[in-house]
Amino acid sequence: MKITPYRIKKGILYLKHYGPKAFWNRLKDKMESDRIPYAPWLERHQPGSAELRQQARKSKALKRPPVFSIVVPCYNPQMGHFFQLMASLQEQSYPHWQLCIADASASGNVEELADNFSFIYEETRIRYIHLKENRGISGNTNAGIDLAEGDWIGFMDHDDFLAPNALYEIAMAIVKDRDIEAVYTDEDQVEERKDGSLLYQKPHFKPDFSPDLLRSNNYITHFFCVKRTLLDQAGGFRKEFDGAQDYDFILRCTEAAKKVAHIPKVLYHWRIHKESTADNPMSKAYAYEAGKRAIEGHLARVGASGKVSQLPHFGFYRVRYAVLGTPLVSILIPNKDQADVLRRCIASIQKSTYQNYEIILVENNSEGQEVFDYYQELAAEPLDTEGSVMGKGTLPGGQAVTILHWEKGFNYSAINNFAASYASGEYLILLNNDIEIITKGWMEEMLGNCQRPEVGIVGARLYYPDNTIQHAGIVVGIDGIAANMFPGLKRGQEGYYHKAALQLNYSAVTAACLMVSKEIYEKAHGLEEKLAVAFNDLDFCLRIREAGYLVVYDPFVEAYHYESKSRGQEDTKEKVRRFGEEIEFIRSRWMPLIQAGDPYYNPNLSLKKCNYALKR
Asked: Which helix (H) or strand (E) holds 13?
């Protein structure tokens, strides 16, 4: 990245906003090498002229082709940029479109350019209106919508442009699935060099529709197209949300849409310059307050109670969901030996601000006396080593502790199912004994999410003792099965588009620290006992998702996981055989998903790395 006076000035502003430590972590995120240069990658993945001609032939053969009205509100655009926007539409391999220009500029430059373009290129698909006054971005956009005659409406900024296959890809998705009512695509940013050439950079490879990610950030942004009937139902753009008018609009559309589709291809090029929000978020500070209000309005419409706050990074938000009542939470902890580890775990739980919980320990063939001495500290009466219930006690805060005895060999799934059968709580927390909670309000945070009717499971952000990430969600398909995201990323760094630090949806989270309602746990028949050691949490989360629930990664629940970074080596024949059998079990049960790709990831991203790196 070239150092310029502008970037130095911008850096000083960021330093003042974030503070030295957060600024340095952000800078390291920015400087992180992608290893695979994006611009050559994009060139390799763009359709060639022969493919575009074939797309054009297929488009003309459609019996009921969707017609796209592309709405562009204009206010003093650079003429060269606007020309490129119009040219990018004319170069589309899909012919069924119209351009609707709502121009609030004082001069007649845009109208003159549009007229000349239409005349020179014999283009009849451009509609133009000159607005007598600048109505603001929302009012201008609505004026453009009034020009639209298509059954689908797409939205562009006046200095951006489309990839030549953009409308074709969207049209094919719509034709294939008539339930789709809203569509978005991947995008990148484009910067003009001094010689006039374009630098393509900062690709945003998005997941399929993720409600929690959308409440954390307007990740959909560009290119967004909506069916006209849905737009009429949701309503147009609202002036009171100017600056975040697209965020408010997208939230309303996705609330009402029968189906929201995602095209995992870079089809929109977002131009950046010194005045643009893409390059300088501080240029529109008012927009972020409008974004906060847009989320608040969305929560009110869907009946969710939550407090919205802005995160340090501009345009990113946190929703704290209200806890209804004070339901009992049962914390299930399997244990073998390691008295000091267990003591640390329970001590961290006792610091919790939420007090209505019980702890259910499951003793599994410990060999040392020290851990039994600790059990005795917790139990009110002498331990009964013969029965299933070894003892019961009460913590100083009044919380019940039950110590169970699992006599069989280690089977993580069976042990937790056994513990759950003794749980009295409405909600269960599966917790490894080597976890140390560092967020005092962790149970309220998890409960607020878990009480949402659409949510099945909530997971946490876990760190190794050296303050690097151990777990920040799980993606299916990496390493052939699945893997934790962002392992080794330093605490304070946030990774690709801040995903390590945002609440969002994943296909799975680790059971080392996981909350689920007891009702859902029992409906799913608990953890799969054929998976004694590995992948039981993956399988459990996928079954819960298959039942129609969301899995939520909540980075605001933080804990240390004292699992060794070298843990998991299968160093005996028995372990190797068992691990191989569990791999085959997962592949057999979930092969269609593994082959199709994780919907909360992106097919353009690596299945060998866990940091959202580009796939070659």
From this structure: helix 5-18
Query: Which residues is 423 bridged to in the sheet?
Result: none
The predicted model gives 59-65 an average pLDDT of 94
Q: Is the pLDDT of residue 277 over 60?
A: no
Classify strands 513-517 and 427-431 as parallel, antiparallel or unpaired. antiparallel
Cα separation values, 206 from 181, 193, 210, 217, 498, Å: 18, 27, 9, 12, 13
> What are residue 475's DSSP bridge partners?
483
Residue 114 clears pLDDT 50, i.e. is over it: yes
Break the chain into its structural domains and give their ranges.
Answer: 1-31, 38-304, 329-596
pLDDT in tens, 23-35: 554 454 444 444 7
pLDDT at 224 over 90: yes
Residue 61: how many CA atoms within 13 Å on its side-chain side?
A: 7
314-268-595 Cα angle (round to 5): 95
Q: Does domain 329-596 have CATH number 3.30.230.70?
A: no
Assess contact for 359 and 422: CB atoms under 8 A: no
Cα pseudo-dihedral 131, 133, 138, 142, rounded to 10: -30
Which DSSP string corresponds to 360-426? EEEE-----HHHHHHHHHH-SS---SSSSEEEEEE-TTS-EEEEEE--S---HHHHHHHHHTT--SS
What is the sign of the dihedral through the CA atoms of 237, 242, 246 and 247?
negative
- Evaluate whether 376 touches 391 at the Cβ level (below 8 Å): yes
Mean pLDDT over 316-324 rounds to: 98
Q: What pLDDT score does 18 carry?
A: 47
Which residues, including other chains, have CB under 8 Å from residue 478's CB and lie 6 or more apart?
606, 607, 608, 609, 610
- Superfamily name and number for 38-304: Spore Coat Polysaccharide Biosynthesis Protein SpsA; Chain A (3.90.550.10)
Inter-helix orientation angle 536-546/573-596, to 10°:
30
Share of the chain above pLDDT 90, in %: 86
Q: Do domains 38-304 and 329-596 have the same CATH topology?
A: yes
- Beta-bridge partner residues of 435: 561
Q: Which of 186, 330, 151, 193 is nearest to 265 (CA)?
A: 186
Indicate the pLDDT class of residue 7, thresholds 50, 70 and 90.
low
pLDDT tens sequence across 174-207: 999 999 999 999 999 999 988 889 999 999 999 9
What's the rounded Cα separation, in Å, for the pair 302 and 476?
30
Degrees to nearest 5, angle at CA 253 with 248 and 254: 100
Q: Distance (Å, rounded) from C-alpha 450 to C-alpha 455?
A: 6
DSSP 615: P
Q: Give the Cα separation of 156 and 144 in Å (integer).
A: 11
